[in-house]
Amino acid sequence: MTGLSTDRLGQGAEAGARSGAPAKSTLSGLRLGGQAQRYLFRVSTPIGDPAGGDLLGWLDREYDVKNLLDPLIYPIRFGATGHVMLIDNRGAIVSCPLLATGSRISDWRELEGVVHGEPGWSTAYNDGHGGRKFSIIGHAPLRTVNDVLETGVSWHMFVWQDSREIFAPARSLLAGMTLAGLFALSLLAILGYYASRRIVEPIRRLGEEAAHIAGGDLNRPLDIRTHDEIEDLAEKFDDMRVQLRKLIGHLEEQVEQRTRALQDTQAEKDRVVESLIQAEKMAAIGTLASGIGHEINNPLYAILGKAEAIRDETDPARRRQYSDDIIRRSKQIATIVEDLSGYVRPGSQRDWVLVNVNHQLSEAIALARHSLLSDHVEFRKRLGAVGGVAAKPDEIRQAFFNVIRNAIQAMQGRGILEVASDMDEGGIRVSIRDAGPGIPKEQQRKIFDPFFTTKGPDEGEGLGLYIVQQIVKKYGGSVAVQSEEGQGTTFTFRFPASQPLPDR
Question: Residue 128 burial by CB count (10 A; 0-12/13-18/19+): exposed, middle or buried?
């Protein structure tokens, strides 16, 4: 429909004359009209005077949207559902292959935000076609058309495609990747099983065999058949096991030979030490002989005198008194002889018992009292409650006697000799302190060396303290010396304690 409107022309000229602004074409919004009740829009074009440029009127023409726009919009398709549609800013459909012209988009509030002045892509939880799916929408304003549209109306081009179709390639890719991943996992599982059977299991067996070898079991042959490098390694491992067994067998044989040799050497050393101890005892007899002879002579002369008196005495009471005196003197001599015989008697391995240290210390003191030089020596004993030590009694007594004898000689038979015993840190401690001149510092390191002596050539071989040290070491103990010149000397014995305490 076209035509000229006189009223419109007059009004337009008057408006143009007043405003002085040039008129321009306008485009109306959609309206339902015509006999077929079709959606139409009107295009109004100004008509001006060519001579003066005045507005003479308007040329109006109404177009059927379906006839004019649909042939332009409908052919633009992509994929199965992708198409272009034209809507205005109020949600009314101008042209769409799927939606009727003039209809409104459902829930326009979801899409209202994408209708703005710049082209782009937006997301909405509305597909614009009545669905409630997440949609990606391409949109762009028709700026040229919007410039001539009536005030408040703008047209926008929308590009829409079903989200299922949009994401179909991604889903296909994801499905492919999933299948590929499952295939890869299956392949890894198969390879893992293969590796476990062909690699891990043989290596585990190698580890077990290594543990057996570390535990000393060298008699387990290693049989691994994998026909690869692991089998070669297992063979070399088994060769190493065989070589180790041979080497250890050879070493055990050598150790056994060396042990026998050491045992023979130790036995020989023990025999030598036993001989030295016995020789030291015999040498000490010379020191004790004169003193013991003096102690025996006194009671012996008394016995002879009483015996002669009994022979001539007729009084029974007096004869009995003489007899009792003879018995007492005889017991005194027997004690001296017993002390000496116990000192001289050789011991044996069977003599190992649990020794009462205090008892042997007291016997050593009693034996030392028989020395000629001991007459002016004051013996002070402070014996505590100590345990016993597993040893030969005569050797423990010998060690104490050697030190006490040296102390008496160092004091030249005059002074105080202190002897003490106690428990110290779970062990037995015995100390023997003299009031002699002391030992020079340079000699203290050598006093336990064999054949070291500061005495004359006729006064000893220098084996006394060496024998003391050997005896103490033999029973797991130690002996140490502490001395200052002019302050005397202290020998300290330490023995591991044993229980219970024996009587001897």
Answer: buried
Residue with tokens 């990606």: 136
Residue 176 to residue 171: CA distance in whole angstroms: 8
Query: What domains, with CATH codes, occur in the chain?
Result: 2-67 (no CATH), 69-166 (3.30.450), 221-345 (1.10.287.130), 347-504 (3.30.565.10)
Prediction pTM value: 0.42
pLDDT tens track for 176-192: 999 999 999 999 888 88
Q: How far is the C-alpha of 378 from the C-alpha of 446, rounded, in Å?
A: 29
Quick check: 377 and 411 in contact, CB under 8 A? yes
The burial class, CB within 10 Å (0-12 / 13-18 / 19+), for 411 is buried
> Measured between alpha carbons, how far is 96 from 108 in angstroms, rounded to an integer?
16
* Pick from 428, 423, 420, 422: nearest CA to 490: 420
Question: Which segments of 5-141 does DSSP mark as H helices, in order?
Answer: 6-19, 65-68, 70-73
Taking only the tens place, the pLDDT of each residue in 359-389 is: 999 988 888 887 656 778 899 999 998 988 9
Dist CA 339 CA 345 (whole Å): 10
- Residue 158 CA to residue 82 CA, distance in Å, equals 11
